[in-house]
What we know:
This protein is of the alpha+beta class.
Amino acid sequence: MKEWxxxxxxxxxSSIFGTDHVREVEDLILTWAARHGFDHCRVDxxxxxxxxxxxxSSPNRQRIVVKVWPxxxxxxxxxxxxxxxxxxxxxxFPAPRVLTELSxxxxxxxxxxxxxRSGVLTDVRxxxxxxxxxxxxxxxxxxxxxxxxxxxxxxRLVPPEGRIWPPPHNALFDFGATVHGAEWIDDIxxxxxxxxxxxxxxxxxxxxxxxxxxxxxxxxxxxxxxDWDSVFIDHEALIVGSAAAQFPVNWELDVPQTPTNGEVAAxxxxxxxxxxxxxxxxxCSEIEASVTYARAxxxxxxxxxxxxxxxWSGSARESLKNNGxxxxx
Length: 329
């Protein structure tokens, strides 16, 4: 594999592996793999973001995915999330099988799971796909009810009084250094925080990155769900609002990443249809606040990377500026 040259990739690699030299990273991965019985493997791919998704293969062409997180990760939470993935897979929810326990890899933490690319890439604007995604989330929430008290499973927290944002989700986003020009985004988010903080909708197990990039589709709906470290306990209305705000995102397809207000509303109605119950007015207010805050957070991330708004068209910033806070029709 070639060395990383992009400064952002170097920063992310260092935050995960403690080094941005590819050869050193490969040695860390293969040492971990051998310790877990995956001998004589080679590293095929390394995808880096908040953590890393590494594909390794053995001489018999068996492929394994090694998920790696920085050493700063919440280990009890990760262990619980991976246990939930294992349990849900055993109940026929479409999740990759977990093959190892969570254990140290260099300065970070890692787990091995099967390489499973069932289904096809998810284009939410194909007929039936949006409904399948909403129905999949409803099924996830229903099955997750049995694990709501799972030891270590993290609760997604709203920023406390005096703060607008949680810590950014990876090392690329520096909100403190990019305040100038983002005041209008901060103001919108701050306005809706009291609703999020006082949410009363049912507390459930949900997936806070329910987007096309983390799943694949088959003829009968959801074929595979990834990114199980995004599983948290939260209010149902906030989970649905967050999903509705981001469900089309898919970096592998050349498709619009930001949903229209009509698409957001349709996703919420599809979820209601699957759960066989409409949201109450108070829950609808929580959903609207969650959609708006999720859009604002994405807009804030965009601003941190692009303060001069060179990537404005089709962005969350454009949607937030043009449409304002989201309201269900």
